[in-house]
Specification:
Elements: H1 14-62, E1 98-99, E2 116-124, E3 149-158, E4 167-177
Antiparallel strand pairs: 1-2, 2-3, 3-4
Amino acid sequence: MKRYRANTRRGFTLLEASLATMIIGIGVVATFRLFAACTQQNSISTRMTSAMMLAENIHEAMVGLAFNDPGMGTTNFDAEPGETLFTYDDVDDFHGETFNPPINSNRNALNNLAQYSQVVSVWPVHLNNLETNSNESAPDLTQTSYTGAVRVRVRVLYQATPATTPVEIYRQAWIRVDN
């Protein structure tokens, strides 16, 4: 009597090969999408880090300045006549300034970051009500009001290309008190 041996398979069927190819393809596409998302987030975080540094540069540039102008006291708000960025001698001199290219803490232009702008505002606030003048378009106090404290706000704008509109990507504010 002759025995028949069972036919053993040696390979994949067309259906199995197609299924394996689809699974691997989906995995590769998902990996590429993940890399794209990571690259985009890396770009966003780089811009945010730069913006935080630029806001801090304004803060550091103001640290050693007087609260009021040494010569004119509280009679003038904003830069005094004839003052330039390098001769600013009090905090309110920075009010209304837009620095593009932005400046570092030594007030030197950072030309390699020309797509960023620093917009500075200085408004008086009451020490017992820090919400005073929080809306700059409808202030509670005039800028010449002396309260002994001001809010300095730095907005950092980013302009991807010269043809695009600058977009605010970071905002930092702090309170400066007269000694």
